[in-house]
Amino acid sequence: MSIATAPRSGTLLPRLATWTLWLLGALLLVFVVAVPMDVAQQMIFSAVLFVVALFLRRRGGRVVVLMMMGMSLAVSSRYMWWRLTETMGVGGVVDLVLGLGLVAAELYAFVILVLGFFQVLWPLNRKPVPLPADQREWPTVDVFIPTYNEPLSVVRTTVLAATVMDWPSDKINVHVLDDGRRPEFREFCEQVGVHYVTRTNNFHAKAGNINAALKKAKGEYVAIFDCDHIPTRSFLQVAMGWFLRDPKLAVVQTPHYFFSADPFERNLGTHGKVPNEGELFYGLLQDGNDQWDATFFCGSCTVIKRGPLDEIGGVAVETVTEDAHTALKLHRRGYRSAYLAIPQAAGLATESLSGHVAQRIRWARGMAQIARLDNPLFGKGLRISQRLCYLNAMLHFFYGLPRIIYLTAPLAFLFFGAHVIHASALMILAYALPHIFQANLTNIRVQGKYRHLLWNEVYETTLAWYILRPTLVSFINPKLGKFNVTPKGGLVQRGYFDSQIAKPYLFLLVLNLAGIAAGIMRWSFASDAGELHTIWFNLGWTVYNMLLLGATIATASETRQVRRSHRVPLDAPVSVRLADGTLLEGRTINFSTGGMAIRLDQPQPIEPGMNVQIGLRHRGVEQPLPAIVRHDRDGQISIEFAQMDLEQERWLVACTFARADLWLGQWGQHDRDSFLRSVGQVLGASMRGFRRLGQHSISSLRRGFRPVGHEEGA
């Protein structure tokens, strides 16, 4: 939406606050950042700002957040000014090359910090707009469900949920876009009453699949769901209202919510305790983008207006991140986008770390391609705010090299005595620690519900090595690489240590261990106080890197995942009719496509293996579904659904996965971050990583160092 013309709540206040922040920032840069200080003065200045930030962080209101951002930028800008003007001495070729590499990594982190603050200055928090009371005024919608090699068991629930969405039946058409051209999919679509669409080739992968289907669809709007993303019944009613309010609106995006644990959550044991990698983007950044009319199309859980999409030639095919590139093209044409932070669909996360890494490689490659082929900093049609939001999204995926530099920088001194920062250890601490602490304190205040301190370091450390080469190669030659489909619905039959995926981090771990040994040797021969301080500084940095590497190694220890049907918490009324006609009332505890756990109001012994009828209510109507009792534990029974016909299966989906309220109570409910808790959690994960590495090493010794397959127990 246009900030100038669209109806927003409190439009004037955010704009005034934004310009006030820029003015304060400029004044701080002029009067504070470049002022020279000795160690004592620098520490006092930084301490005063930090104490003020500590006082402010528990205060409510957006203005407090803006003040904390301003102080953080002042301290960080001062650090970068000092680094560039006072620490870039040339002691030799090694010092120069390694020093330039480190300062480049720090400049990258500083730019990301500044752009990140700008992106979330004043999140819009958009609310749904009601539709007209007369359903004849509602537009026609085509629902696209692209699929390639996913099993029918994954796609089935999504298709059934799409058929029960609350929208007039004569104004909605569901299309399964099968690039796998599988007969069983065609047969299923005929049985369930949806359109089966295929083509004779797989050109341009998912983007080409959608574009081919657009030629056969006639609706005014297109809703797109990945084949594992199950829409709720209310999806269209929540998403469509803004289109009727704003004729220039082309995209409405909703969150990607995953009801299964991703590999980080499962292997680190953080599911439900720590926000996952995507929650910052969908919980905060997209809301921030919305204020600047820079919401990205994310490929799923989205509605796109057909006219603007046709105007840009369909979904973008020039890059492998067709979604973000499509949004960029629409924004260049003057169309607007919107974000509703209300989960209206839920899907499956990747099962293995290798699959997760492959997905992130594709995202990173695609963003590098956009940076090379259609860089938002250049060209027509975008406002400065939009360019900055897109720039941040692109630059984010270039963190591979800076992260590797941070993991190896202290080794330059420990191994070779190279001074990559030409300053005393005390002076470095006086400038660097305030920069780090102030930025982290501000981010805890800004991002605390959506990203916990240090966990982002673990995520980026794990992925850094693998996105480094694809981003650099794609930036140089954007035509290299291809679209890879993220595998979903698989199993991890046995726990194993994925030594292949962990190999680069094992190498880095050995390097850091050798660095500590070298540092201890230097310490034993050092006599100068300044050199001793430098040794301790670099040893401390190396120990911190090892903490991150330990947690990274823990992510490579895959735990078992043997459920094809993931359990989802649900508290809803249910009835159980026994074979003799006895009716028992209760409430559901959780459910899956295969079964359900129920707590009976009046416990009564039920024999395992007994056939029962499970009554689930939808719009005040109850329909019985066949089931078999598997367990009975003091009034809590576990049932497995028996063979159902399509209408019964559709009813089950309507009463469970497609409930409008189901995901609202589970998304974004983490406690706000705290420094000590995050440090303790990451330290615990690191210790588990080292323990699992030790178990793997012992197992390898016992096996005579034979090649380790994916069936090795851990």
Keyphrases for this structure?
714 residues, alpha+beta, Spore Coat Polysaccharide Biosynthesis Protein SpsA, Chain A, Thrombin, subunit H, 3 domains, 7-stranded mixed sheet, 6-stranded antiparallel barrel, 23 helices, 13% strand, disordered N terminus, transmembrane, Cellulose synthase catalytic subunit [UDP-forming]
Model regions low in confidence, pLDDT < 50 over at least 5 residues: 1-9, 707-714
Rg, alpha carbons: 28 Å
Per DSSP, the total helix count is: 23
Structural class: alpha+beta
Main sheet characteristics: 7 strands, mixed
| Secondary structure: number of strands | 19
Residue-averaged pLDDT, rounded? 89
Describe the structure.
One of its GO terms (cellular component) is plasma membrane. It is a multi-pass membrane protein. GO terms for molecular function: cellulose synthase (UDP-forming) activity; cyclic-di-GMP binding. Catalytic subunit of cellulose synthase. It polymerizes uridine 5'-diphosphate glucose to cellulose. Helices cover 50% and strands 13% of the residues. It has 714 residues and is α+β, with helices and mostly antiparallel strands. The chain folds into three domains: 12-123 and 398-557, no CATH class; 135-358 and 369-383, Spore Coat Polysaccharide Biosynthesis Protein SpsA, Chain A (Alpha-Beta Complex); 571-655, Thrombin, subunit H (Beta Barrel), CATH 2.40.10.220. The strands form four sheets. A seven-stranded mixed beta sheet has the order 3-2-1-4-8-6-9, sandwiched between helices. A six-stranded antiparallel barrel has the order 14-15-16-19-18-17. A three-stranded mixed beta sheet has the order 5-10-7. The longest helix is centred in the last third of the chain and has 28 residues, at 675-702. The protein is globular, with a radius of gyration of 28 Å. The model is unreliable at 1-9 and 707-714 (pLDDT under 50).
